[in-house]
Amino acid sequence: MDTIIFDVDDTLYDQALTFKNTCTRIFEKSFTEDELETFYKVSRKHSDALFDKTVNGELSVEEMHICRITDACDELSIAVTTKMALDFQEAYVEEQQKITLFDEVVELFDLLYQQNKQLAILTNGSEGHQAMKIKQLDLTRWIPAEHLFISGSIGYSKPTREAFTILETKLQLKKEKTVYIGDSFANDIVGAKQAGWHAIWMNHRNRKIPKGPFKPNHIVYHPKELLELFKNSEIGSVFIK
Q1: Helices (H), strands (E): how many in the chain?
Q2: 27 CB neighbour count, 10 Å cutoff
Q3: Which residues contact 148 (CB under 8 A, 6 or more apart)?
Q4: Residues in Cβ contact with 136 at an 8 Å cutoff, skipping those fewer than 6 apart
Q5: d(CA 120, CA 101)
Q6: How far, in Å, are 2, 37, 38, 106, 221 from residue 206 at the CA level?
Q7: How far is CA 63 from its chain centroid?
Q8: Segment 63-79, tens digit of pLDDT
Q9: Half-sphere exposure of 107 toward its Cβ, with a 13 Å CA cutoff?
Q10: Domains of the chain
Q11: Closest by alpha carbon to 185, among 223, 145, 158, 149?
Q12: Are the C-beta atoms of residues 165 and 195 closer than 8 Å to each other?
């Protein structure tokens, strides 16, 4: 592979940790670790659905922030108010300013950088919010600023074909030598495979693979597996499928 492109949220860092820390700040209820993990997964489901409505202009950003936590709470029968939802968002942003890369991702970036691979980011979200995370994670240490693509700034979000086409044009990449790595099956894997790229599913939440025509070229269940995959000199065989 000549070009390796990454998602950001819950691919390069543990997004669930940020969510769980916010829960302990906002909710009086004591959660078990399993309850927090379930809460996080349900919130991501609602967040992804509401993101599309926000992009389409059906919801304001503030409405989306309120609904994504209240909808998750409603599904899990957790008491919540609009004020709590807004407080949650404020605390969540504060927690996001503490995010750090998985240790194995740091080692992977070092490896790929030394190999002179073309590296890039394609992430969904508002320009300012995602740029804050990119800065916090210090991604320009390995990736040129012009290779950082945020849906809010390019005008298209994953999994639309246009989002991937923009990168193809800007990076002059070869599809058969490009791999995209992300945690969202619907946005990352489907989007990349529709574009004709290779795809690695960072499935460290142990989700079931959805039914449908699109399959990842490889699945990893821990950042360590992702690192080992690229350390393997026979990695090319993974993408012949």
Answers
A1: 10, 6
A2: 16
A3: 120, 121, 131, 134, 139, 140
A4: 96, 97, 98, 99
A5: 16
A6: 28, 11, 12, 22, 7
A7: 21
A8: 988 999 999 999 999 99
A9: 12
A10: 3-13+99-240 (3.40.50.1000), 15-96 (1.10.150)
A11: 158
A12: yes
Residue type, 162: E
What six digits make up the tokens of 67? 């609904």
CB-based contact 205:41 (threshold 8 Å): yes
Q: Is the dihedral of CA 165, 171, 176, 180 positive or negative?
A: negative
Query: What angle do helix axes 33-55 and 15-26 make, rounded to 10 degrees?
Result: 100
Contact between 213 and 192 (Cβ < 8 Å): no
Closest by CA to 184, choosing from 168, 204, 156, 213, is 204
Structure tokens, 229: 């995959």
The one-letter code for the residue type at 34 is D
Structure-token pair, residue 25 = 């700040």
DSSP run (H or E) holding 181: strand 178-182
Q: What is the DSSP string of 81-127?
A: -HHHHHHHHHHHHHHHTT--B-HHHHHHHHHHHHTT-EEEEEE-S-H
What is the DSSP secondary structure assignment for residue 176, as one 8-state letter? G
Q: What pTM value is reported for the model?
A: 0.88
Instruction: Round to whole Å and give the CA distance between 39 and 63.
Output: 20
DSSP assignment letter at 13? B
Each residue's pLDDT tens digit, 127-170 = 999 999 999 999 999 999 999 999 999 999 999 999 999 999 99
CA atoms within 13 Å, Cβ hemisphere of 192: 30
Residue 107 backbone phi and psi in degrees, to 5: -65, -40
Q: How many residues does the chain have?
A: 241
